[in-house]
Amino acid sequence: MSNRFEIRVAGSGGQGVILAAVILGEAAALHSDTLNSVQSQAYGPEARGGAAKSEVIYDTAPIDYPKATSPNFQLILTQKACDSYIGDTAKGATVILDDIFVTEIPQIDGQIYHLPIVRTAREKIGREIVVNMVALGTAARFLEEKKLLAPSAIKQTILARVPKGTEELNAKAFDEGYSIMDEALKKQPLK
Amino acid sequence: MSNRFEIRVAGSGGQGVILAAVILGEAAALHSDTLNSVQSQAYGPEARGGAAKSEVIYDTAPIDYPKATSPNFQLILTQKACDSYIGDTAKGATVILDDIFVTEIPQIDGQIYHLPIVRTAREKIGREIVVNMVALGTAARFLEEKKLLAPSAIKQTILARVPKGTEELNAKAFDEGYSIMDEALKKQPLK
Known about the structure:
Two copies of one chain form a homodimer.
Chain A: E1 5-12, H1 17-31, E2 36-43, E3 51-59, E4 73-76, H2 79-85, E5 93-98, E6 110-115, H3 117-125, H4 131-145, H5 151-161, H6 167-187
Parallel strand pairs in A: 1-4, 4-5, 5-6
Antiparallel strand pairs in A: 1-3, 2-3
Helix pairs in contact in A: 1-4, 1-5, 3-4, 3-6, 4-5, 4-6, 5-6
């Protein structure tokens, strides 16, 4: 049986969207007994323009087609990325948008969470470079709620991937992201 | 017209094969006027085992299928990865193998270069962590010879991607790799 679940992380170059997606792909592979995963990025002429995206597919069955065609979960960090990539969101999907970089909230047939991802990286951690780790924290809480992947799988993969000496910083950013989404789910539970 | 060219980078976890492939994907997207690229990694149960692979497709036409089915160029850094991934090499392909970690040279209908990639990272640079940058240097010389991509495109992408403060180390590793392949091509030119 196929249980395909498509994830897209999108933002601008420099926000670490590829690393975030690589971590989501590896976390499933290394820490789940049931999920296969494929992670990919496609570059065309638009790659010069600024909206970056990176995708991950999870499935209990082998994955034939590795691109996302209608993402079940999107994590979008800029308005440009939102404008470019919101259109193919699956019905009933969940979309997390950054609350300072995405100001025009799209209409979708699904659930939107407008969360302080960049602000948390800047203000609580003091290092905007960890914005992708905050974003991964929010994703981890969501994927836990969907019973797809344990948060510890993602956190362990982060700790194995980031440069030595930065583990604590990245773990803190991840934990903050997790808490933000946890609060959001208390106010607006998943349908 | 399609001019599909499939690249696979393979080794063990920790050798940076994903970053190497991400850089090859981005370099084509950002610095070539003609190439599209797609970069992907697939994880299945075997991801727990140790042979890591990461793939890049270049094409002048849009890329429908993002996985490598018969790589035209492989860069292989361990025996296990060689055993796992040599089988589907395209006819006439070029394969670069690390000369200490790959000791059993496979038979292929193509060209094999057995090069001191890990040794160069260890001995000339003094940091085995840059093995993927040495590997990218060898790839850059090959892709230049094939008239697919300028070495400067890859080097610029590396410099934009690596952590601040490590640019010089990574550039040196890249340059060493480039020289190794340049020497190899003098002895054994591409057919």
